[in-house]
TrEMBL record:
PANTHER family (alphabetical): SPHINGOSINE KINASE, SPHINGOSINE KINASE 2
Stored SMART domains: DAGKc
Statement: the UniProt record of this protein carries the keyword Transmembrane: no
Gene source species: Denticeps clupeoides
MF terms in GO: ATP binding; sphingosine kinase activity
Main location: membrane
GO CC field: cytoplasm; endomembrane system; membrane
Organism phylogeny: Eukaryota, Metazoa, Chordata, Craniata, Vertebrata
Span list, region Disordered: 1-24
Transferase keyword on record: yes
Enzyme Commission identifier(s): 2.7.1.91
Signal peptide: none
Residue ranges with Low complexity bias: 10-23
Location of the DAGKc domain: 132-245
Protein name, as recorded: sphingosine kinase
Length: 245
């Protein structure tokens, strides 16, 4: 196994949306293979506050380009409770690094760990060749699903999360019945890490049929397929979610 990244610090943090902090507050961050440890530093004894961010709850991170300050921005979705099941509420935490190079190094390290890869530090720099390529997803949207609201839900809820996760994607709106079936039957599947269906149950049937009608169907059917239910009933998506635990 490869060694975990060494601890770094990001002082002068402006805090996050869930717990705003003073602009003069200082934080020390430590990155481990499973968590980000956030320690608030205080001049008064006993005033330190700690936060533990599990990487399993972290969707992604970013480092805004210049002329923006050298920030490490974390997109965190901790679980909450509702009347039925568990919900997740978006929180954004931003920490100001000492330099842009340090912020980029933190961002690279977190992205590697989110992809279950470790990165090495060589002197003051990290090895960029160790960085995993962004995942590529094919998004299929039926704009008529959900009483015509599927595209709006996609733009307001789904695409922002995909961008926060640093995922590359191509979005296609289906135009007619069996459009997705014909598309999946002909496309080059190795270009994509997965197919995401943003619709009701009907589009999922089209995609599965398209995969099974390919000459390379035995390999094609192994392509990861996900569904984000945006239909009226979503019975099939509900059943899949139920039996998946």
């Amino acid at each position: 196994s490869l060694p975990p990244p060494p601890p770094l610090s990001c002082p002068n943090s402006p805090g996050g949306s869930s717990a705003p902090a003073s602009p003069t507050a200082h934080y020390a961050l430590t990155l481990t293979p499973t968590h980000i440890h956030v320690q608030r530093l205080s001049s008064r004894p006993g005033k330190e506050s700690r936060l533990l961010l599990p990487l399993a709850e972290l969707l992604g991170c970013s480092c805004p380009r210049a002329p923006a300050p050298p920030l490490l921005v974390l997109y965190w979705y901790p679980p909450g409770r509702r009347r039925k099941g568990v919900s997740r509420r978006r929180q954004v935490r931003a920490y100001l690094a000492e330099s842009r190079a340090e912020a980029e190094k933190w961002c690279a390290g977190i992205q590697c760990l989110l992809r279950e890869q470790f990165f090495f530090l060589i002197g003051p720099e990290f090895c960029k060749s160790m960085m995993p390529r962004p995942r590529r997803l094919l998004l299929l949207v039926n704009p008529f699903s959900g009483r015509g609201q599927a595209m709006q839900w996609c733009q307001t809820h789904i695409l922002p999360m995909i961008r926060e996760a640093s995922i590359s994607y191509n979005l296609i709106q289906t135009e007619r019945q069996n459009h997705a079936r014909e598309l999946i039957r002909e496309i080059s599947l190795p270009e994509w890490d997965g197919i995401i269906i943003i619709s009701g149950d009907g589009l999922l049937h089209e995609v599965i049929n398209g995969l099974m009608e390919r000459p390379d169907w035995e390999q094609a059917i192994k392509t990861p397929v996900g569904i984000l239910p945006c239909g009226s009933g979503n019975a099939l998506a509900g059943s899949i979610n139920h039996y998946a635990g």
